[in-house]
Here is the input.
Amino acid sequence: SAGLDCEPNDIGVCVEETSPSEMFELLSRMDRIPSADELSAFVVNLRTAKYDDFVPDALLRRAWAQRLIARGHDFGLELSRLLPS
Here is the structure.
């Protein structure tokens, strides 16, 4: 968390009492953006549908990642648009 008070929020992170310029500086120091598959490891409420109790965790995590990708979330591209070159 880079010493910041933060919490996960869906596919984002809420960071309190941090200016946009501070966040841009921190984000620009990131080596890379995690993939949807990597982010799926942190999802805690995977079982939301009727038969999810019968599906292995790995498959539910992969399905979560695929839904994220299908919505057009490309974190690297989105971040590159936000950060100054």
